[in-house]
Amino acid sequence: MYIVQIASECAPVIKAGGLGDVVYGLSRELEGRGHCVEIILPKYDCMRYDHIWGLHDAYINLWVPWYDAAIHCSVYCGWVHGRVCFFIEPHCEDNFFNRGCYYGCDDDNIRFAFFCKAALEFLLKSNKRPDIIHCHDWQTGLVPVMLYEIYKYHGMEYQRVCYTIHNFKHQGIGGIDILRGTGLNRESYYFQYDHLRDNFNPFALNLMKGGIVYSNAVTTVSPYHAWEARHTDIGCGLGHTLYLYQDKFIGVLNGIDYDFWNPEIDRYIPYNYSQANFEQKAYNKKALRERLMLSHSDKPIIAYIGRLDNQKGVHLVHHGIYHALNKGAQFVLLGSATEPGINAHFQHEKHFLNDNPDVHLELGFNEELSHLIYAGADMIIVPSNYEPCGLTQMIGLKYGTVPIVRGVGGLVNTVFDRDYDQKLPPEERNGYVFYDTDYHALESAMDRAIALWYEKPEEFRQLALQGMNYDYSWNHPGAKYVEIYDWIRHKW
What we know:
elongated; 37% helix
C-alpha cells in the first residue's frame, strides 16, 4: 500500500509529545512491512533541521486557495532518519509556522486549517494518490472533511482516511472563519450537530469532531482508553459522537522503539544486559547512584520519569517521594513542570531534600540520564490521572524495572498486577496496579512492591524478568493498522 501520514509532529525533527514518536515509529514499522510511506508536515522555523538529511525543493510553486485568493507555498523533501518527509512552507504575512513554537498561538485553529488545506492541495497538484491518508489529532481533523466535501470531486475519490486521536483534551475549536478560509463555506450545513458543530457550543466548530465524523476509521492509542473516551469524561464531550460512530472506532496500543529503548544495545548505559545476564542491571544501579550522589546502601530505587503536571498525577508523585523514603527506599525523579506553580513547588522540594542521600530530584529533561534511570532503578511509578497510552511503563518493563501504575488508559492494557490480576496466571503478571487517586491507594501498591523487594528478592527478580518477556514494540500495532487500512480500502 501507499500510505501518507499527515501530522503536526514527527520525532525527532518535530516533537512536543508522544504524537511525534508515534508518527515516526509507525511509519518505520509500515515501511519494514513493505509498504510505501510518506509524511507531510509543516515547515516550522524552530524544528530540528539537524535531523533532516538531503533537504531539497519538491514542489516550488504550490498555490493554496485561501479565502478569496491563494497563498504561495514551497514544499521541501528530506529524510528524517530514513523516513521520507515533505515540509510545507507558506509565504504569507501570517507566518503560520514561523512563530518559534509548534503550538500555543491564539490562531492555532486557523494555522492548522491552512496546513490541512495545503497538504491536500499538495497531494492533488503533485498527482500523489495514496491508498491511505493517516491523520493525527485535531490539527489534521479537517483533512477528511475537505477530502470528502471538496477534493473527491477533483480526482481524489478513492483515498481512504484513518484518523488517530492521541489526546481528547485538545479538540481544535474554531468559528466561521475556518469555513471561509478553506472554501467549505456552507455555514448552515457545517454548523449542524451531525457535521462539525461542537457538541456543547452551538456557535463553535470542533475540528476533532469533524475528523471523527468524516474519516473511514477512527483510532485512539489503547483499547482501554477507547472505552474511557466513550463512557467517561475522558472523552471531553465527544462521547456521544464516538457512540454514533462506534462501528469504526477502535483502540490500538502504541509501540516503543526497541532499537532505542533496549538494555541489550542501549548506548547511554554503562552496562548492557538482558534476561540472560540480568545481574548486570545491578552495575547500572551503582552507576546511577554515583552519578546522582546517592548513598550506596541495600535499598530499592524507585523512579519517576515524565512531565510534572496534573495529567500525570503530580500530587501522587510528590507523595510517592516521601512514602518511598519512609519505607526504606531511595527515590529518583526526572521531569519538567508545565506550570510555574508546580515548578516552584518542586524547586522548593529539591532544595529541602538536597542533603538527603536517598533522594535526587532532577528538574528538567535529560535524554541520556533517562536511560540510566530506567536501567538503574528497581521500580517506576506512573500515577497518572489519565494516560491515553503511556510509554514510561512499557520502557520500564523492557529494562526490568517493575512498574507501579494507576489503572487507567493504556496502563491497564500493559501492566498486570502481581497479586490481584485475574486475567493472567501468576507467571505472566508484571507489576502493580492501583485505581483510586488518593494517597492510600498509591501507598498500598508501593508497599507491596517494596515488601517483595526486601522479603522475597528472588520473587521480585522473577517479576522483573516476566516484565521483560513482553513485546511492546511496533510489531503488533503495525500489524493492526495494516488490518484497519485493508478494511477501509475494501469496505468503501
